[in-house]
Amino acid sequence: MRIGCGYDSHRFVEGRPLVLGGVDIPHSRGLDGWSDADAVTHAIIDALCGASGIGDIGALFPPGDERYRGVSSVQLLSSVVGMVRERGLGIVNVDVTVVAEEPFLSPHVLEMRRSLALPLGVDTERVSVKAKTNEHMGFIGRGEGIAVFAVALLE
Ligand code: MG
Predict the structure, then answer these.
(1) Where in the chain are the domains?
(2) What does the pLDDT look like over 40-82, one tens digit per residue?
(3) Burial level of 87, CB count in 10 A (0-12/13-18/19+)?
(4) Ligand 1 centre distance from Cα of residue 155 (Å)
């Protein structure tokens, strides 16, 4: 068994869609970033990278590389799942905590789990997504951005 942890944070900006876990979520602002800025998927990618020892998302898909401008992060996740499998490893489960003051994410959790289960190649019940606020504290509490924590277990 091998375990990995991942973390990501992105800033809210005007004029971009909000994509989390591969799901378009209706909101007045989106997250800034080189790709689609899907912080949930980015944290999972780093958890998989950590568990399998293949580096990190920034090394694999460097920001500034034109190939990844506006790319769907779910595509990047599929690529990383392929690298994990090439190393003879399988995904046991993934657990994610999204910390966001807004929007209210609970109604979107099941769709995110289903969306992520496809590229991960596992049943939806092996993909957990939990949504929390930061109790109005700090940059998350002020609505400046969101943070995501993820762990992945491989066998
Ligand atoms: Mg990111």
Answers:
(1) 2-154
(2) 999 999 999 999 999 999 999 998 999 999 999 999 999 999 9
(3) exposed
(4) 26
10 CA distance to ligand 1 centroid (A)? 6
Centre of ligand 1 to C-alpha 33, Å, is 7
Q: The pTM is what?
A: 0.98
d(CA 9, ligand 1 centre) in Å = 6
Beta-strand pair 127-132/91-99? parallel
d(CA 18, CA 86): 32
Exposed/middle/buried for residue 34 (C-beta within 10 Å: 0-12, 13-18, 19+): middle
Centre of ligand 1 from the C-alpha of residue 113, in Å: 19
Q: Using DSSP, state whether 10 is helix, strand or coil.
A: strand
* CATH code of the domain made up of 2-154: 3.30.1330.50
